[in-house]
Specification:
InterPro entries: RNaseH_sf, Tc1-like_DDE_dom. With 69 residues, this protein is mainly α. The protein contains 3 helices and 2 strands, in the order H-E-H-E-H. It has one domain. Strand 1, helix 2 and strand 2 form a beta-alpha-beta unit. It starts with 6 loop residues before the first helix and ends with a helix.
């Protein structure tokens, strides 16, 4: 699944060489295969605490939407 073309593998083509991938370090996102894939593909990952929505505006948007529904 991780080997298909996606934003992860095509990020530098779309955003230039200085792009950084953001994930929340939750257990499901931090498995060995995922870490190996990111390292093998020279993908820089923004580190921040697991399940921390603060630096992630998308998570804040989901919270806002949930309160409106």
């Amino acid at each position: 699944m991780l080997q298909r073309a996606s934003l992860i593998t095509e990020g530098s083509h779309l955003c230039g060489n200085g792009w950084v991938f953001q994930q929340d370090n939750a257990t499901v996102h931090n498995g060995r295969r995922t870490r190996d894939f990111l390292q093998e593909n020279n993908i820089t990952v923004l580190d921040h605490p697991a399940s921390s929505p603060d630096p992630n505006p998308t998570e804040n948007l989901w919270g806002w939407m949930a309160r409106k529904v």
